Amino acid sequence: QVQLVEYGGGLVQAGGSLRVSCVASGRTLSIVRMGWFRQAPGKAREFVAAIAWSDGNTVYADSVKARFTISRDNAKNTLFLQMNSLKPEDTAVYYCSGETMYSSTWGYWGQGTQVTVSS
Question: I want to staple 35 with a disulfide (CB 3.0 to 4.6 A). Which of 15, 50, 90, 118 is the partner?
């Protein structure tokens, strides 16, 4: 089992920056990748970015490329999402997700953290 807890959401003006983080606990040695998803009101949850836990390879949704950066601190079992040039359409609940050698795809989820971008 892996537990995920997000931190760092909040309110920011358009054009601003915000960093959210996610701390993993439990069977963290078995993590193979982690990622961020988001869900805006009335919309389906969507993929934002993911990172391979061992080699740091990253992948991004087109909508956030060049604005968001996903990173991790393996020693602290922490995942980050640095969000720059934020737009009102980035407003959503941001969820951290993880996958281990033993879990299903994106088998673990955090509780989510609200990010609100005002225009």
Answer: 50
Among the listed residues 110, 69, 119, the one whose alpha carbon sits nearest the alpha carbon of residue 91: 119
DSSP element (H, E) containing 51 = strand 46-52
Mean of the pLDDT values across residues 48-75? 97
Nearest CA to 81 among 9, 29, 32, 11? 9
Q: Over the stretch 1-11, which tens digit does the pLDDT of each residue have?
A: 999 999 999 99
Does 104 score more than 90 pLDDT? no
- Per-residue exposure over 59-73, b if at least 16 CB sit within 10 Å of its own CB, e if not: ebeeebeeebbbebe
Contact yes or no for 114/9 (Cβ under 8 A): yes
pLDDT in tens, 7-47: 999 999 999 999 999 999 999 989 999 999 999 999 999 99
Angle, alpha carbons 44-8-70 (nearest 5°): 65
Q: Quote the CA–CA distance of 20 and 90 in Å, as a whole number.
A: 13
